[in-house]
Structures are given as C-alpha cells and as structure tokens.
Design a protein that fits this description.
Layout: H1 3-9, H2 11-23, H3 78-90, H4 100-112, E1 116-120, H5 123-133, E2 141-144, H6 151-158, E3 162-165, E4 188-191, H7 203-213, E5 218-220, E6 228-229, E7 232-233, E8 240-244, E9 257-261, H8 264-274, H9 300-309, H10 313-331, E10 337-339, E11 346-348, E12 353-358, H11 368-377, H12 393-396, H13 402-419, H14 423-431, E13 432-436, H15 444-459, H16 461-466
Parallel strand pairs: 2-3, 2-4, 5-8
Antiparallel strand pairs: 1-9, 6-7, 6-11, 8-9, 10-12, 12-13
Bound molecules: pyridoxal-5'-phosphate.
Pyridoxal-5'-phosphate (PLP) is lined by residues 122-124, 148-149, 151-152, 194, 220, 222-223, 244, 246, 257.
C-alpha cells in the first residue's frame, strides 16, 4: 500500500485536527506558517454578533460579523516533514537519477485520471512547455481569455506568438466559448481556455469549436485541481492540461507545476522540451523532440512536499465544495450579490476562488471599493480580483515591442490592439469580488457570518457611503 493510501485513510483524524486547531491554540499545530493573499486576518477578536439586523457595521464602529479565525495556508504535519527530510537525506535533489518526482507523477496521474503526468517547476513552466512541445512560435496566434493571471498571456509572448483575447462570459467569469469561433484565423494554432477560479469553462462548446477547426486545446488548469466536467477531471478534455502548485494553490509546494495528458507522444515531447531537448536517462521518455528546449524540471523537494500535500487534497476539495454550495445558497438570496454561474457540465469546481459580482445599485450606490473595505472591517478577507489585463500598458505596449514589429509589422500590431476589445470583461472587472480557497475550509458558521456581514453592509449602505 502506498504512502498516499495510508494517509488518505487517516484523513478523518486530519479533519479533527483542523477543527481542534480552529477551536484551540493555533500555535500548537504544525504548519500555520503563512497566509494566502493580502488581507487574511488571523486571531480576530471574538465579538458576539447576536443580531445582525440591528448591529452597526464594523466600519461604523459596530462589532465584527466574523467571530472566528480563518485557516492559514498551507497546512503541514509530520507527513510533510518526513517526505522533505527523506529527500534531503537522500542527497538526490535533482530528479535525474532520483525517484521522488516519478513517485509524485504516478500519484498525480492516478488522482487526475489522466494516462500521463509530468512534474515541472511551475504552472508557467507547464504552459510554456506545452506550447514549446507544440512548436508554437512567431506568426502563430493563441486564443486566451483576458480574465486570468498574466502567466497565461506571458507564455504566448515568450514564444513570440500573438495572444488573441476572447471576451468573458459575465455570468460565469469564464471565457465566452460562444465567441471563440469568431476569433479563429488561419494562424490560430492553440486554444488555451483557463478554468478560472478553479471552475471549468464550457468545455463542450470549446471542444466543439476546436474540433471543427482542428485546433488543439491546452487547458490552463493552474487553479483547477480536481475540478470536474461531467465527472471527468479537467486537463483530460483537451490535448493536455497545466497545473500550478504555487503557494496560494489548492495543491501547494511553494512553486511547482504539472502537465497531464492522455497522449503518449505529447508527454514525450513535453518531457524532452522541459529537459533541454534531451531524453531522460531514468525515465521511459528517451526520444528527442524538436529543435528547442529548456530546463523546467521539478525538484525532488517539490515532489516530496506534493506527495504529502496530496494526502489531504481530496478531503479538502470536498469541504470546499460543501461550504461553497452552502455560501452560494445564502448569497444568491441577497439582492445585488451574484455568485459566479457554474455551467451545466460542471460536476465539481475546485473553488480556488469563490467569486461573485457586486451590483452597487442594490447597495444604495455604494462603490465596490467601499463595500470591500466594509467587508474587510467585518473580518471577511476579500479582494476585487483581476484588472483589465488586455488594456494594461504591460499588454498594449506589445504593439511597440521591436521584435513584434519586426515579426508582424506595424499594421498587424495596430489591428491586434483593435481586436483586443473585451467589453464584458471590462464590466466584470468593475463588479467582481473574490474570497480565497482557504476560507472555504472553515465551518458552516463562518459561511453564515460572511452572509450576515454582507446583509449588514447592505442594510446600512447609505450611511456607509456617507462615512
Ligand atoms: C490561471 C493561471 N495560469 C498560470 C499560472 C502560473 O502558475 P505559476 O505561478 O505556478 O507559474 C497561474 C498561477 O497563479 C494561474 O492562476
């Protein structure tokens, strides 16, 4: 029986530990080292909030709606310590000539149900490697959403290909799959949808369009560990999927990533691309590929931490789903709070982010920034999420990049700027509110207090606006 199986059996013990940790002394529990994202609050004063209806909002001097303590992220215990120390003492820290990375790949592949998994140094490396393995380069176009972390864009530009933004579906926060076809040209070489927040895009529609035009789909599943479309995990639907294990992610090794695919030749190509174009001496992937390569190898340390973290990932995913569903049930009854829609095919969101839209017209015109401020004062960490990436100078300056001008010419780069309009995404970036995944590892009471805090702000929105 593998280490992973043994640990899975002990998950109830772990969940008890979690509850105890929340109840009693946080410092007695190993592994509450850091917090996720900005504004996470530890050790909040426990102020009873018996009647939200009559209580003053915290921003106006009243008691906080949230009386608990948010769970820090990541979580570790003796399993993590052992895995890490085992690697350290083995004196084999590079995957070449060692076994931990392979062990991780075997377990990750079993977890996700894909035929092949390849560990890499980060989520960005996963995406970069996949584009490299497809031979993407100057003159090629890659379709991406604007509502994503900038890494999705960066990997396209690192290959001197043209990133083509397809607008967002306001209701789901995901790429609008119905708008992909209009952006396809003879130069389109990849469609790279992002399961943003950990919720699957409309994969049926994406695959239908991609299939019709015979364009490979690379799923950016960097936020979507264990997310499912029609009962099958994401990353299994397109040619391949890329995952991130960066510090905030639901599966975390500080930095790290993985590629999963059901295509044997593709994983071989990825392996050789990420290993300086060389086949590995200790793996099965011994064929060379292409004319380009780099080093994107995962370390044995990362793999060891991931093996330990994976012993909890299934139970944590279940808990997030339970809490997210409970929260959605409450939030959707509040006028002006619009939780992100899940498409019909979504059988599980990873809930890396809990996302909703805030309609200020139902809050006496209270600006989102003031709403966020008031919510934070209630003890609820929150943020406004991504900005208008397609309109940022970082992106639009690409039209002035000398290499791009050399490759594509001024006219094409000017047209590229004109093509990048995403009005629905513009709206979304002005309305979005995010909670982070660790908040969903809390209790039902925590979820109730989030809803209570929002109701309290709504009731007093006009007064808050004047403060
Ligand atoms: C959607 C998305 N794509 C790509 C990445 C890049 O992953 P990493 O930070 O591991 O390089 C991230 C990470 O935040 C992400 O959220």
């Amino acid at each position: 029986m593998s280490q992973l199986t043994i640990r899975t059996i002990n998950i109830n013990h772990y969940l008890e530990e979690l509850k105890m940790k929340k109840k009693f002394n946080r410092r007695d529990f190993i592994g509450t080292a850091s917090v996720v994202g900005a504004g996470l609050i530890a050790g909040l004063p426990t102020v009873a909030c018996s009647s939200v209806a009559t209580a003053k909002p915290a921003i106006l001097g009243g008691p906080k709606a949230f009386t608990g303590t948010w769970l820090s992220w990541p979580i570790i215990d003796q399993v993590d310590e052992k895995e890490l120390l085992d690697v350290l003492k083995s004196l084999k820290w590079c995957r070449l000539g060692a076994t931990t990375a392979k062990r991780f790949e075997d377990e990750f592949q079993k977890l996700t149900g894909a035929k092949y998994a390849l560990g890499v140094s980060s989520g960005t490396s996963a995406l970069y490697t996949m584009l490299g393995a497809l031979g993407i380069g100057p003159g090629d176009e890659v379709i991406i959403p604007p509502y994503t972390f900038v890494a999705t864009y960066n990997v396209v530009v690192l290959n001197y290909a043209l990133p083509i933004f397809v607008d967002t579906d306001l209701e789901s926060f995901q790429i609008d799959a119905n708008k992909i076809e209009a952006s396809i040209t003879d130069s389109t070489k990849v469609i790279m949808p992002v399961h943003i927040g950990g919720t699957p895009v409309d994969l049926d529609r994406v695959l239908e369009v991609a299939g019709k035009h015979k364009i490979p789909v690379i799923e950016d599943a960097c936020q979507a560990h264990l997310a499912e479309w029609k009962g099958k995990m994401v990353g299994n639907w397109g040619l391949a999927g890329g995952f991130s294990f960066q510090g905030s992610k639901n599966l975390n090794s500080g930095e790290g990533g993985a590629i999963q695919t059901n295509d044997e030749q593709f994983v071989k190509n990825c392996y050789t691309f990420h290993n300086q174009g060389q086949g590995g001496s200790v793996t099965d992937y011994s064929t060379g590929f292409g004319t380009r390569g780099t080093n994107m190898r995962i370390t044995e340390f990362q793999a060891g931490v991931l093996l330990a973290q994976m012993t909890r990932v299934v139970e944590q995913a279940k808990l997030r789903t339970e809490n997210a569903n409970y929260l959605t049930g409450m939030l959707k009854t509040i006028p002006g709070i619009l939780p992100a829609k899940l498409y019909k095919g979504v059988t599980r969101s990873a809930y890396h982010l809990y996302m909703f839209r805030y309609d200020k017209t139902r809050f006496a015109g209270l600006d989102r920034s003031k709403f966020l401020d008031a919510l934070q004062k209630e003890g609820i960490p929150c943020s406004s999420g991504y900005g208008k990436m397609n309109k940022s100078a970082y992106v639009t300056d690409l039209a002035k990049n000398p290499h791009y001008l050399k490759i594509y010419g001024e006219k094409t780069m000017k047209e590229w700027l004109d093509r990048n309009q995403c009005p629905e995404n513009d709206k979304l970036t002005e309305q979005a509110v995010w909670f982070t995944q660790n908040m969903l590892l809390g209790t039902k009471t925590d979820m109730e207090q989030i809803a209570e805090a929002i109701k309290k702000i709504q009731k007093n929105a006009s007064e808050i606006g004047k403060s």
